[in-house]
Amino acid sequence: MAGRPEYALAFWLAFVVTATGGFLAGDTGRDLYRMRCLPRHGTTVTAESWHKAYGSRLYRYRDTTGALHAQLGRGRRLT
Q1: d(CA 55, CA 34)
Q2: Mean pLDDT for the chain?
Q3: What's the first-to-final CA gap in the chain, in angstroms?
Q4: What does the alpha-carbon distance between residue 17 and residue 13 come to, in Å, rounded to a whole number?
Q5: pLDDT: which is higher, 27 or 66
Q6: Which of 5, 14, 60, 63 is deepest in the core (most CB within 10 A)?
Q7: Residue 76 confidence (pLDDT)
Q8: Which are the contacts of 58, defined by CB distance < 8 A and separation ≥ 6?
Q9: How far, in Å, CA of 44 to CA of 48, rounded?
Q10: Taken in order 36, 37, 43, 44, is the CA torsion positive or negative?
């Protein structure tokens, strides 16, 4: 009885639905965090990936005054 194809189909269908729901919940949680928590800690900007340097990505962005800045990965600010 345990080897019936209906059980396998039901298992995989439930697995796909659960995995999709978990992914969507995580994605929604991340967006909510960005919308609510990040603006409290200062001005947020949208950075664009410029190129890869020193083994990590180099991002560039403009601040509220219009000055161009570059940041290496999530750490060092270069300009």
Answers
A1: 26
A2: 80
A3: 67
A4: 6
A5: 27
A6: 60
A7: 54
A8: 49, 50, 51, 52, 70, 71, 72, 73, 78
A9: 13
A10: negative
